[in-house]
DNA sequence: CTGAAAGCGCTTACAG
DNA sequence: CTGAAAGCGCTTACAG
């Protein structure tokens, strides 16, 4: 367990002929050392292959420079792409990233955040939707508030009832875009395959859709299932079994849209001839499915990168909000309704 | 930065009426405490909301219980699925996971591993292919050897020239399965869209294919491009522009296969009527593309979980090898060649 | 600008 | 089985 050979800061200090304190200041870029001396110390450190012990650093100073990223499930392309953006941006800043699964459960989220805090990570990024019910986020909010008083930095991706820096996806507007596209094509009976209505992501996208549908006299049927490919299959079957005649279906994320496509195929319904299908996110694969999916692109990797940018800056008086745009990507899965 | 309120182990010890040493033993499950006393201490700790400071622990004891996972790119479904398996299994064991990008570059890999070591993570899992050239892995091997003498645990996923525990995907056999499937269908002119030939994953799969093709008198054309969807597109165009008439194409991973499908579509060639296509991995999406892809399934998530299982066990005298199976998933993208 | 010293919160020999 | 004490490698007031 011991590493008698590891060179420590004292060794560097001795070799450089300075005190431990000075060596420390030189290495951490702290103020109060002449540039030449600092340069000298760093050269010695380099030559000796000095590697700082982050645990000692963490113990002595408090929080350590690393990021805790809480995702729903890293195997989900939506989160994998966010994580990719986080990792790239973090590595530029020399910060390490620890990833944990929250399984889209408020309690689990709290558990993970507590674990991250106990590890003294310097910042925490929570990716994944907030909940429409503020009460569900209250415990998390308390934990985070306490963490922030200790100097911890926090950023969330998505709309939360949390008083922290946030990167906001354009969910409502994306809903409007998708709805406008569909109504513009002439659809008047539309089915919406939603995820859990308690998620802000779902709620915001749905509201965006509805704002257009309602003012266009579109007949909307909404079914809510799990926010996954399986949920898309179940939702489609539920909707169709119910006998609701629709000419278009909107899945509230691409994972569900993939399920919709699959269910439709199994039922022998053609897309877009019999029914149009649209999704949200533009995860990498949806341009390769058949037919290629029309979807509202959310810049996942960029959101991850922006979240890192937020936590890298000092906390402001007011929580910062970075709004991201979206882009409607029209592909082959949507067309005018059948006559 | 300070947290004057955090309850420390001394506080727990005081409240429990025992010494710091005893409290420590009780909390870490160390031997040498009566069960009752240990139980008592833990109850007090629980009540006080005691959370151990891992940095103090790491400083005092050496390595800390957390896992460093090195992947090529977390946005790539292959690695995202491996990571998912790692995260699930690790959370069961109460270990945190830190993920870093290595960008499929030996030097970057070494840099990442060094960073992980300097953070005193207790174990390191390297996912991603090894290199056919042993020299490329030598520096990494040295770093890892040193790390292991300090008590660090190491496991790799995939074949490496590294003397450590390994989870081995069934690449050669998977190649045999794909080749057998294709020759069985009657294909005699086959194109292989390979990734970099210096990667063991590529080399092993190719060898597997060749062992069958060679003994069946199949005419094989191999092109090598980047191990991505783009590489699949480029490879397909290169192969076809060269005028090599093939009735089937094998991409050495599903990402490339997606590119092949796309390139073929753009050229107006039908799959499988004009040309059959097969891949490797069975990443989640390939069952949804059109036509659904025939592929050799590699159990990514399971490999990740197995790697964690390996590092959780103490090091053995001889490196352990866990061989994973594969499964040929025949879907719509392969059929008999056109007459 | 530089140094001596205290302290961060644990674990682990070393003694009983 | 239990305790007193040293030590892990840093950072940061506190002095000069």
TrEMBL record, chains A, B:
A UniProt-annotated Pfam family: Peripla_BP_3
Entry keyword set: DNA-binding, Transcription, Transcription regulation
Domain HTH lacI-type: 7-61
Gene3D superfamilies referenced in this protein's UniProt entry, alphabetically: 3.40.50.2300, lambda repressor-like DNA-binding domains (1.10.260.40)
Alphabetical list of PROSITE patterns matching this protein: HTH_LACI_2
UniProt-recorded Gene Ontology molecular function terms: DNA binding
Transmembrane segments: none
PANTHER family per the UniProt record, alphabetical: LACI-RELATED TRANSCRIPTIONAL REPRESSOR, LACTOSE OPERON REPRESSOR
UniProt name for this protein: LacI family DNA-binding transcriptional regulator
């Amino acid at each position: 367990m011991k590493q008698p050979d590891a060179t420590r800061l004292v060794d560097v200090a001795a070799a450089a002929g300075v005190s431990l304190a000075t060596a420390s200041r030189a290495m951490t870029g702290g103020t109060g050392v002449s540039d030449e001396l600092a340069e000298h110390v760093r050269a010695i450190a380099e030559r000796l292959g000095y590697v700082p012990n982050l645990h000692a650093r963490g113990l002595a100073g408090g929080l350590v420079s690393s990021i805790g990223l809480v995702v729903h499930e890293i195997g989900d392309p939506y989160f994998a792409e966010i994580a990719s953006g986080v990792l790239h941006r973090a590595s530029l800043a020399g910060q390490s990233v620890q990833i944990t699964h929250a399984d889209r459960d408020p309690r689990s989220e709290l558990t993970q955040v507590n674990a991250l805090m106990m590890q003294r990570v310097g910042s925490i990024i929570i990716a994944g939707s907030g909940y429409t019910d503020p009460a569900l986020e209250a415990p998390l909010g308390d934990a985070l508030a306490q963490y922030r008083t200790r100097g911890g930095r926090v950023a969330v991706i998505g709309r939360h009832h949390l008083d922290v820096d946030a990167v906001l996806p354009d969910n409502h507007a994306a809903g409007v875009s998708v709805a406008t596209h569909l109504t513009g094509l002439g659809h008047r009976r539309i089915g919406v395959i939603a995820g859990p209505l308690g998620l802000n992501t779902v709620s915001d996208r749905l509201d965006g859709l509805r704002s257009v549908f309602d003012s266009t006299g579109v007949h909307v049927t909404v079914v809510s299932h799990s926010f996954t490919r399986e949920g898309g299959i179940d939702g489609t079957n539920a909707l169709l079994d119910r006998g609701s005649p629709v000419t278009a279906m909107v899945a509230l994320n691409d994972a569900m849209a993939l399920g919709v496509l699959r269910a439709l195929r199994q039922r022998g319904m053609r897309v877009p001839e019999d029914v149009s299908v649209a999704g949200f996110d533009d995860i990498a694969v949806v341009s390769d499915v058949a037919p290629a999916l029309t979807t509202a692109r959310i810049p996942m990797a960029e959101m991850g990168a922006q979240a890192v940018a937020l936590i890298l800056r000092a906390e402001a008086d007011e929580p910062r909000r970075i709004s991201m745009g979206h882009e409607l990507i029209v592909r082959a899965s949507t067309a005018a309704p059948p006559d």
